[in-house]
Amino acid sequence: MTRSPSSSRARMRVRLACAALAAICAGALTACGPGGPKPKTADDGDSGGNTGPSRGITLLAGSATLYGSRDENGSKASFNSPRGIVVDTGGNLFVADENNRVIRKITPDGTVSTFAGTAGAQASVNGNGSRARFTDPTALAIDASNNLFVLDGYSIRKITPSADVSTPVTLQSSGFGDNLRLHPAGIAIDSSGSLFITTGVDTRRLSGAQYQNAITLEGPVNDSLDNVLVPRGVVVNADGVAYVADLNNTISRATSGATSLTHFAGVSSGGSADGNGSQASFRQVVALTVAKDGTLYAADAQSNTIRKITTGAVTSTVAGHIGGTTLVPGSLTNSLANVAGITVDANGVLYVTSGNAVVKIVP
Question: pTM (2 decimals)?
Fold first, then answer.
């Protein structure tokens, strides 16, 4: 039987309509799942509908409790008292692995390798990669060309992106004798190449071709009472302003070219209070980092918390809880193990050395 053109067109319209309806249903199931659109949760990103990494604490590499020197991926890798940490322009992390006497590298996917030094080999030797030796690598700084600067006992070691290690300067003890508190404990670098160093008794800015120009921004204080070194964080923002965890247990700053520090946040009595200006308090800020918008983040030891300090000097606690001693990934209010170093990437994601691990924190 011959079909009429009009009946053929009608059947074609029905088939097209059915296909369109099926596509719409399939698309709805793919995008929304059963029951229609899912409500947005706090872990889905910010409240404005933008997608992004989930807020909270996650383990990036190493173990919260176990130690070692294994190069591997994620939790299969191991560290031994990691401290200073920085991030380069490619998103790679570098860690001063103190008790292994090496500098470790962590790629964005969490793969850990030994960048300079040899685990367990303690000395002060310049050279490339595994041929170099360190005595006590603690704090790190990084410049715009991705050169690393490492505090290693009284020496400042420089490591190029190709892992060539040199020793551009060895610090003097300021006449106090060979005391633990005189060891450098924090380091930062500004855009001109000047270095900022904290010790247990003073804060210095070193500049010049051989860092021969030294300005004492704070101290020195009498060293006769105590032989305990308390690390103090220091960082420089994009405008050349240095922020220091000062000898009064507060946060001070020095503008570019200044010869002394001025108070910025915190009260000298110490504590863990959040608030504006001197209403805030800190227990032991062992490391500082600064985001591209000028916000400071502090690794506050003893309380084992991460503190946020706005450009207006308002302090809040963004991760960890006071008195926590065990690393528990998950919520921002979960506990952290002892915190020792902190850095922030271009997206505002924090990376912290906690226990024998490196953790990622999205505040």
Answer: 0.85
